[in-house]
Specification:
Layout lengths: L5 H22 L17 H11 L7 E11 L4 E11 L5 E9 L11 E7 L9 E2 H13 L10 E6 L3 E3 L5 E6 L2 E5 L6 E10 L12 E10 L1
Parallel strand pairs: 8-11
Antiparallel strand pairs: 1-2, 1-5, 1-6, 2-3, 3-4, 6-10, 7-10, 8-9, 10-11
Helix pairs in contact: 2-3
Length: 223
């Protein structure tokens, strides 16, 4: 090999090394717990979200949430929680975060916070997603109103796609308005951003039917 080429090869490897370091650092996410304790009765979802948002340096108004799943046991202890966030920056790019944390899963790897992120130029469903700030405020109000305390099942899945949907699932339907819960007629057409509570005696394999499911449309996001 021509000895004169060695400096170029070394520089190429060094540039590659720096690129890898930059990629790793730019995609590294601080491991921040959304809920610091597993007793949901003691959790203030609004304050938990605000701390989480500030720790990860997320936007206040531009962060949207989807695929939210929170599993509680019959004592309102958090079994697990996961969700996706989409944060639109001033640059126009959208940073997508994937969060998961389990308090009572089988493995040590599951029982820790996992957050990853990636940047995309567009996220087609972004404009139809619910603002995370509003979602966690609603979650806190529903907890205060006892909406999750059914005690009919060993576990409850609190789930929301974060997208605009129509009445479609079996079960009871409600509306959260001015921090008050109203039961509504599920036979009348209605659409909006909603949240479902689905009961089961195991922390998995949840299914929707008249006996297990109730749905609630969240404020400012219904028609």
């Amino acid at each position: 090999m021509n000895i004169k080429k060695w400096p170029l090869i070394v520089l190429a490897f060094f540039a590659l090394f720096l690129s890898v370091i930059y990629f790793v650092n730019s995609n590294h996410v601080k491991e921040v717990l959304l809920f610091k304790e597993n007793d949901f009765n003691s959790v203030n979802s609004t304050e938990s979200w605000r701390h989480f948002r500030k720790e990860l340096n997320l936007s206040q108004e531009n962060v949207r949430i989807q695929n939210f799943q929170l599993i509680l046991d019959k004592n309102n202890k958090i079994y697990s929680v996961k969700f996706d966030l989409a944060d639109k920056k001033d640059t126009g790019k959208i940073t997508v975060y994937h969060y998961s944390n389990c308090f009572s899963c089988d493995t040590k790897e599951e029982n820790r916070v996992n957050i990853s992120k990636n940047s995309v130029r567009e996220w087609k469903q972004y404009d139809k997603m619910m603002r995370a700030e509003s979602f966690f405020k609603s979650l806190h109000v529903l907890k205060q109103q006892g909406f999750f305390n059914t005690n009919k099942f060993n576990y409850e899945l609190i789930v929301s796609t974060g997208w605009i949907e129509r009445i479609g699932l079996e079960g009871e339907y409600f509306l959260l308005e001015n921090k008050t819960i109203h039961k509504i007629d599920h036979t009348k057409p209605r659409k909006g951003l909603s949240l479902q509570v689905i009961g089961n005696n195991l922390p998995h394999s949840f299914s929707t039917d008249v006996e297990t499911t109730k749905s609630i449309f969240l404020p400012d996001y219904y028609q």
